[in-house]
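Subject: Thiamine transport system permease protein structure
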Amino acid sequence: MTLRRAAGLLALALGPVLVLGVFFVLPVGGMLARGLWPDGAFDPGAVAEVLTRPRVRRVLGNTAWFAASATVLSLALGLPAAYALHRLAFPLRRVLRAVLLVPFVLPTVVVGVAFKQLLGESGPLGSLGLDGTPVAVILGLAFFNVSVVIRVVGSAWESLDQRPAEAAAALGASPVQVFRTVTIPALRPAIVSAASVVFLFCAAGFGVVLTLGGLRYATVETEIYLLTTNLLDLQAAAALSILQLVVVSVLLAVAGRLRAVADPGVSRVVARPRRPRLVDVPVLGATVLLLLFVGVPVLTLVAGSLQVEGEWSLGNYRALGGTGDQQALLVPVTEALAFSLRTAVDATWMSLLLGLLVGVVVTRRSRSRGERRVRAALDGFFMLPLGVSAVTVGFGFLITLDRPPLDLRDSALLVPVAQALVALPLVVRTLVPVLQGIDDRQRQAAASLGAGPLRTALTVDLPVIWKPLLAAAGFAFAVSLGEFGATSFLARDDRPTVPIVIFRLIGHPGAMNYGMALAASVVLAATTALVMLLVERLRVPSVGAF
């Protein structure tokens, strides 16, 4: 590596490295220190003691049970839809694909409120008695993650080579035999990858579990929240965060390995969708059931927000200009919405700037073994936030960025920085594959004609990445707008975000407060859904790979 290339690489990497060092490594390191060095001396037994507590064992059991059950349900609902939406041609197919992408980016607290409205005593399914039960939590988690299965498995199904299946059919194999012996083995890496990612997201479903399960059916994330905010047992919270960090990192490593096996980088022709046949009727029926599963809670939420004392009314929306019954809030919901929008804008440009720099650093062509190793090491470092949940990030901020020279407790940038870190993996996953696909010879040709680095980026890179850049901005904005895990630790009472306001409203008694929570949930859901539908129109294929 020449001195000039080394200086350029270090200059590009310096900003992201400093940001992650201060706002990720330091908070996570502080969290590890709080758990392993509780009194200034190394004491791993303190972590073991926390993990042997009866309640903690129940929490671990709840987490594993909820995540495993919701993963199975997500696969059962998502696999037929993945086939129907990626292999069959029928009217409104692209619209349905866009609609089924929306649940993944809906705020978790909104999903929880929607199912609470559906399954509550006054809801359409209230007679089933599922409100506040483990079944409600599992349904909410599956609703949130089924789109991951559709995207990951559907993309693999769409690019599947059909010649082996056609050869098996020509040799006399029945459709069931072809599916069992040819299709499933080919899709297995994608299915297992999707299952591992869904399990991870379900285990980290903070807002859904907190809203639907409460403290009775706590998971690791909600227990960390309880130990930190209610019991002030920071050592126990740190111990659970350490366990979560290890488990999440292992799951992400498995998912990444399986994703590499499923997509080795070989260019394949996408199969043309075919018209449905009689044999596809059960698959189409299952897809319709999935649409009902996704649509009914949302429609119930909207209908509930438009009713006041059994009458159709916009009163709940007009009440958003106030602070609720018995002063449930310190600021009106409209003010919280304005703060959420400003915060999401800040988090979006932060994550875009950071993600673009990361993408440039890790995708530029290496000209020596040493340079390749440096870029690989930087790539691994930049992906570290994938291994930590939003709750752990917020907890780390809380216990480390509270003293000089980094006393940021009163800083207006603390919440958007945390949200930018949460959104960063989506931004990087969207931009990196596109940057990798740009032929470096085009940049070399532009440079040979006298173009400087900036002119080269504007004429070669920008025309290719502007759509993915807009898609990444949409993802970051939607994720930041609905982020609840880290924000629940960091938001101040006089500067709450909308998800925080919704959770506080459903925690205060009174019909007005609950109606305002429904109306605020609809506003937040509509905003994020609109952003994601615009992103879907950009047709960026790499988004589904996440």
